[in-house]
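User: I'm new to structure prediction. If I give you an amino acid sequence, what do you actually give back? Let's try with this one:
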Amino acid sequence: MFVRRTHAIHDWPRWDDEVHDAVAAFEAAFGLVPNILLAHDSTFRRIELIASKRNIRDDRGERPDDTEYAELGGFNGPGYHLDFCFDERLATGLFVLIFDDDPDDGDEEPIPEEDTVLPARALGRGTG
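Assistant: Good question. You get back a string of structure tokens that encode the predicted 3D arrangement of the chain. For your 128 residues, that looks like this:
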């Protein structure tokens, strides 16, 4: 099962706050925490230029040297982790949050190209 929602970065110096806010909105809307962030390579490059080295850690929890280039592979927030994946069809500045219930299944099921529509009851429009 996939759930998808597109967002945009409006304030680049606060990109991490905007991603975190988008995760919170995703969870509020769908009751699920996303686990994938899709974006164009140029979006990731811009994020990497802005990202504070003091907040970057490798798989072992170690910080890169200040002179090292640090390529980001994901984003951690309280209670969640987003894997970064490329989608060259997206415009720079857009990112898509995805919940994939089985991201490592190897089935290669295509990610939907349209955002998930909330059911009417989730929008406050009950059926009766």
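You can read the tokens as a compact description of the fold. Here is one thing that stands out. Helices lie at 15-30, 41-50.
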